[in-house]
## 1
Amino acid sequence: MWCAKIAMVILAAAEPPICGEETCVSSKPLVLDHDGNYDDILVLLALLQRSDLDLKAVMVTPADCELDAAVEVTAKVLRMLNRSAVPVLPGRFPARYNEFPKVWRELATEMLQVADIYLQELPPLDVKEAAHEWLERYLEAAEGPTDFVLTGPVTNLNWALQRRPHLASKVGRVFWMAGAVDVDGNIRDSDDDKPQDSDGSAEWNAFWDPEGTAELLRLGLDLWLVPLDATNAVPVRKDFIQRLDPTKLVSRTAQQIWAQSKFQKSNAVYYMWDTLTVGLYLQPTLCSWETMPLQGHASGKEQGRISRAKNSSSGTKVVNVAKVTDVPAFVEFLLITFDQPPDSGATSQKAWSSGFLRQTSPCSTAATTPELGPSTSPEARDHAHHSSLWQLPVKELKAKLTALGSDLKGVTEKTELIMLLESVLANCHSSSCLPGPSKRAMVKRAANVDGQDVEPPLKRGTSPSTAPASPDFGPSTSPEARDHAHHSDLWQLPVKELKARLTALGTDLRGVTEKTELIMLLEEYLVL
């Protein structure tokens, strides 16, 4: 099932930003734990673009990096974006872990030569407190849950929770790049050979600390795993790097980091492992998710492997696992995230429909936000604030719902109207909830601009006379459309009913025969 429903739960867990005339005041505490390589620093850049997040600290795990260099790069990036007050905590652990190849660990030092980072003056760093010690102290004092984005091993968080299990209640959502659930692992050394103590089935972040991996999976946290299953679809490509805007600081720095990497220079395959993870934290609907019980393997040739558990007994816990990435949507999301000015608010929290980008701006719309009454849950408030439908006035929302046959008695708040409108297609499984012919004009008026009626959307890029017939997933339907349609909540409906709904909404279906296209049209209707 496409992850829109899961995304609603995720968004509901976050407090909405408080917006004034120009700025949004951050309200969601977050800790980043990375292991210092190229893509880890790019994650930091992306998070620093979001003023709706309260970055409490950056912890650095000495896995895929030389620790001192990674700490220095992190501190310089924070200084570059005027966030020097965010503490950088080094992870200090006994040498009992499976090391990354030395040539990979040295890459953190290379980033000190990236122009925008190199030019930052930094006072001497003297951090005496280890990351896991700071984390224990922080969580003890925290009033509410804190989210975690983990792009390296999970050792810091696991150490703190193993020592003080009661602190698990202070941990919010945990997005972790790790594992290879239904695909091959990536445990190879710099010569592309498997280490002697691994069968190659694990992924490096989980393999570095196999015991910590197994222990964390048993804690029952709100864990969102981003494994190789999802990241294998997003290699770093030269054409993507070229699209980054060199006139904007963060985008230019990201371009410099990617372009100078040894992987890029040698034409080796390098993936957006960590940048996909932060993208999914910021916008979960960029992929499909599957909920499953998982187990970690702490020893033997399978050490570090994360696999499906046959059942949820024996200490295994259910985890949300990223599976199929909407690659075009993710690429556009990442470009926009890097290109926007720092501290510009939550403008890269996009509303996505049918795989196409639709941008909203909480700061620009907050001034017209009506008072939210007690009948609306916090979850509804938060989701509505981030919905692409927020741009529509209440009158148009009511017109759409009336046309769809919804009973609006007692429903007056904009949040409730949005929640109803977004759920009606997924929750309606018979033609009885379709609007009658007499209501078609209302549907058309609901999508008007400046009082002018507009026709409902046709198939993207075609007209009634030119739209080609392409049954059975013909070449006219893009791979993105096929993939999205397969994972849509509407896939369970037969073609006949999809056509009936679209016809009732006044859509011209000449030349549109594929189920994928019908689903795309029906979902797109809500935001046009």
## 2
Amino acid sequence: MFESIFALSAIASTTLARLSITQPISGDTIEGGEEYTVEWVERGEDVTLSDIGQSHVYLYAGNDSDSMVPLTQLGTVDATEKEFNTTIDPEIGQNGTYYTIRVVSDNLQSQKPEMAQYDYPYIAYSDIFELTGMTGTFNETLLNATGAEKANNDGDSDSDNEDDSDSDNNGESGGDKNNNNNNSNGDNGDNGDEDDDSSASKSKAFAAMGATILGAAVYLL
């Protein structure tokens, strides 16, 4: 599945949008585990926020426009609200300037002919920003996509392991849980979806996430 997704990344990178994300922007830092408000405005006349309507919001990670990998779905929002409150789970990734947010319309099809022929939805995206306070570690796919070194979050557990086997078990369990979470997010990009969407709607959102492995700056999305 991901082979076809990455093959279409070049096409996706040409996507233009009239929903322009103004927060976060390049240079911004977001603290994992703390509430944050994503904001956007309507620009241009081709597409309105009302046209975009109900949308899914996703978190991606990567080093540049060609390497973005979906991490998780953050929730849903109506584009006309011009903001979305979220708290990014610290366990889904590690510290660094690798992250972007993407807004994928549930109703509006992409306005680009090369995207519309695949029935991809309208997508907007943010600049790449930094996340701090993260406690997770990237799997191999994400390490390659971001160019990051694997975070060492086991310092405390390692020292505890010398004194207590329970601490060792907890440390291993936490690591396994985090790796499984990252692997799952890398493959599906839609863990954490607790909405009552139809399978067709979820499949469409899935396709959108992968198909839009686009650029970082002016993330229109």
## 3
Amino acid sequence: MIQAASNIHYREHFYRITALWVICEAFAGGIMHGIKIPFSGMVISSLAVFCIILLARYVPARLAILKATMIVALFKLMLSPHSPPTAYIAVFFQGLVGQLLFLRKTNFSLSAVLLAVLSLVESAIQRLLVLVILYGKAFWNAVDEFIKKITGNTSIDNFSLLLAGVYIFIHAVVGVAVGLVASKVVKRTARWEQQFSRFIITDESYKSDPLLTKTKKKKRKLKWIFVIAWLLLFGFYLQSLVDPQGAFLPKDKLTEIFIRSALLLLAWYLFIGPLLMMGIKSALLASQRSRKIDMDATMQLLPEMKMIFQKSWQYSNTERSVARLKLFFKILLINVLKTNNENL
């Protein structure tokens, strides 16, 4: 009997934490914009890491993190169908790394820090790679020359590489802080329910909210306009390579950078991105049938988790800056981890 009750307890924690992770991935950007949380991109990445650390702490099942990752990716496909493939890469990277690090659970704090650092650094590198591919070498050379003229420093040849290193380093430092704080926070939640009982949310208005909202389909006519524009631009670009003397396009560096960026952006939007998403979508949908029970259980909790997220930020308005973030996480945790076995 004790083992059965314990399993029910773990199952409810699993679904509630997974539902919170779904909210972080699918809705948190809009929620944070509405309630004006600064540095929302980095905060969203940190929240995903936080959810994985919670799963590692409160759900002892061996492959719980990997299972939750698949559920989150499926809901992301349903709730944010226009998310780029890079967003799914980030989710799978975080889930896989988290599963590997917490497989043995021998050093919880170290695993939490490593997960946070690797996740945030991966996010930073992904953004930098997009910039490198998009703008090419000419743009970064122009940045180097511009900084040299402003600073008058000629001893450093590659300022852009230095800036990229600083950008990654900042993400790594934030990752260390997030990992340390998250590992400490999840260990202390047991005593917070009594200490912060005034912050337990009893509002049940979320029950009237729809579980899923339909997203508007993009107009295909507009897409065909972009296809025609890309073909024309690509034709002019090829003509300038074959016949530089009679090129229709100007030859200056600024135009070259602009044309390259426009061609790559449109190619990604029109061809590469959709093809990658077809592969991701087919792989996820193939596993959806076998996860119907998990999907249904998680879906029932989404309105509640969304409401808890919003209310937690509202209730923390008595504090400012870092103190507010700490109180926000405390309120969020005691409400996410409270159990109500009749739901499952």
